[in-house]
């Protein structure tokens, strides 16, 4: 396949795919439990600020780099800065995405297992302790590895069809359905007895227990949930028509991401307080809360299964983007077999997932700087590599890339005044790099 001939069929397809890349585990799974650990409403406020003033400009930057070259991430930086150290930025994205997939696919495996349990009617019961159920599931090596294998296999099957027939077609159907079911879940959650305490926790800005580490996590979450920093969006935007507006597309993706993150919080925290759960539960929070809320609904088992299916699909749409940046880089613009690359990458990813898959079971006693293998990999990717990637991209687009090309790409397809371009450029050149460096240093 020639990557330059394969494009998104429409602006909506591109926005849905980009939103799908952003809206998945980052917004639905990770945001609630990290917010629960770092102040609830305080974390939400910082997350929104970082998303609007750092994440959104970063997203526009990746879009500009990708569409201006019509090349995947590695080739894009090679084209814009040939034979220079900046070429490492694209390669960092490939390495970072592979590391990200090594724990992201584990969560995808958990969701796959839960979906299978929901389909067989073995998830909801009257006397179930869903916290213990989750611990038992993730502590069984064979079960977890099967879940991870199936999750990666689903990625491989879709990715074989390419951009338009695979990724875009899946996103156009699944993303709207996810929004609908999320709204249903929120309505049920906020009507539970005791839900007001959860809403108060999520929307009250109490900074007393907030730390520098929490600020770093909020910054990392804004990057993680928008899929910026590893140049995934460079690759996605390389398939976009030259007629579409990049700032408005980025704004649409950012707005959808904030909305889904807020819906996730509104769905989770009312249930946490209604059932006297711990908001700082950690990675298992979502898997404990969802069965609790659906067990209180008429036809709850059916609704839970449908939601888990959609959550699984949203998780897949995010993993598509992570796989695609690696596939496109290895494919060399159609010079190598996409099918062969996809299958080999799927196998290598499964192997890389094994340590994180077992970190709550047979490798539970293995610790890296006080964290499990899973948590240590997550921390490395989200709080170290992503900020570094964003810093490199910010400096690259501000000082190394041809500013005439940057301005042209920013202004295509929209009626935005020159003031908006100057504001974006000011943020990228002077504000964002400084904030990333300051937050990074104070978190150490």
From TrEMBL:
Superkingdom classification of source: Bacteria
Keywords: Membrane, Transmembrane, Transmembrane helix, Transport
Transmembrane segments: 12-32, 38-60, 92-117, 137-161, 173-195, 215-236, 257-277, 297-320, 341-360, 380-399, 426-443
Subcellular location: Membrane
InterPro entries: Na/ntran_symport, SNS_sf, YocR/YhdH-like
Pfam short name (any one): SNF
Topology with respect to the bilayer: Multi-pass membrane protein
Gene3D superfamilies found in the cross-reference section: Amino acid/polyamine transporter I
PANTHER family: TRANSPORTER
Protein's recorded name: Sodium-dependent transporter
Organism: Mammaliicoccus fleurettii
Highest classification ranks of the organism: Bacteria, Bacillati, Bacillota, Bacilli, Bacillales
């Amino acid at each position: 396949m020639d990557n330059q001939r394969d494009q998104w069929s429409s602006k909506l397809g591109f926005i849905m795919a980009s939103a799908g890349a952003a809206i998945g585990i980052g917004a639905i799974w990770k945001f609630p439990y990290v917010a629960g650990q770092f102040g609830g409403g305080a974390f939400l406020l910082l997350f929104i600020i970082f998303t609007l003033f750092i994440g959104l400009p970063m997203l526009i930057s990746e879009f500009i780099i990708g569409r201006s070259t019509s090349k995947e991430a590695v080739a894009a930086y090679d084209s814009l800065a040939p034979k220079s150290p900046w070429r490492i930025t694209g390669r960092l994205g490939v390495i970072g995405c592979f590391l990200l997939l090594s724990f992201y696919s584990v969560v995808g495996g958990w969701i796959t297992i839960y979906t299978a349990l929901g389909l067989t009617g073995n998830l909801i019961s009257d006397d179930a302790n869903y916290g213990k159920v989750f611990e038992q599931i993730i502590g069984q090596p064979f079960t977890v590895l099967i879940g991870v294998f199936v999750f990666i296999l689903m990625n491989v099957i879709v990715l074989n069809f390419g951009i338009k027939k695979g990724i875009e077609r899946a996103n156009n159907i699944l993303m709207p359905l996810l929004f609908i079911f999320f709204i249903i879940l929120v309505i049920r959650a906020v009507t539970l007895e005791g839900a007001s305490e959860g809403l108060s926790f999520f929307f009250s800005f109490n900074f007393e227990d907030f730390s520098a580490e929490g600020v770093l996590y909020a910054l990392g979450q804004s990057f993680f949930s928008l899929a910026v920093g590893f140049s995934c969006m460079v690759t996605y935007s390389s398939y976009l028509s030259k007629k579409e507006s990049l700032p408005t597309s980025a704004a649409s993706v950012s707005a959808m991401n904030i909305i889904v993150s807020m819906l996730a919080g509104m769905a989770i925290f009312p249930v946490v307080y209604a059932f006297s759960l711990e908001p700082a539960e950690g990675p298992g929070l979502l898997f404990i809360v969802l069965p609790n809320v659906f067990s209180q609904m008429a036809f709850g088992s059916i609704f839970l299964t449908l939601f888990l299916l959609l959550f699984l699909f949203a998780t897949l749409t995010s993993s598509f983007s992570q796989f695609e940046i690696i596939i496109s880089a290895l494919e060399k613009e159609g010079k190598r077999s996409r099918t062969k690359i996809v299958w080999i990458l799927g196998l290598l990813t499964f192997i890389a997932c094994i340590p994180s898959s077992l970190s709550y079971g047979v490798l539970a006693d293995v610790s890296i700087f006080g964290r499990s293998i899973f948590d240590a990999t997550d921390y490395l990717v989200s709080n170290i590599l992503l900020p570094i990637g964003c810093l490199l991209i910010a400096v690259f687009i501000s000082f190394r890339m041809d500013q005439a090309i940057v301005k042209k790409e920013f202004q295509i397809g929209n009626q935005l005044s020159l003031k908006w371009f100057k504001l974006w450029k000011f943020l990228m050149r002077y504000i964002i790099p400084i904030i990333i460096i300051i937050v990074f240093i104070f978190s150490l």
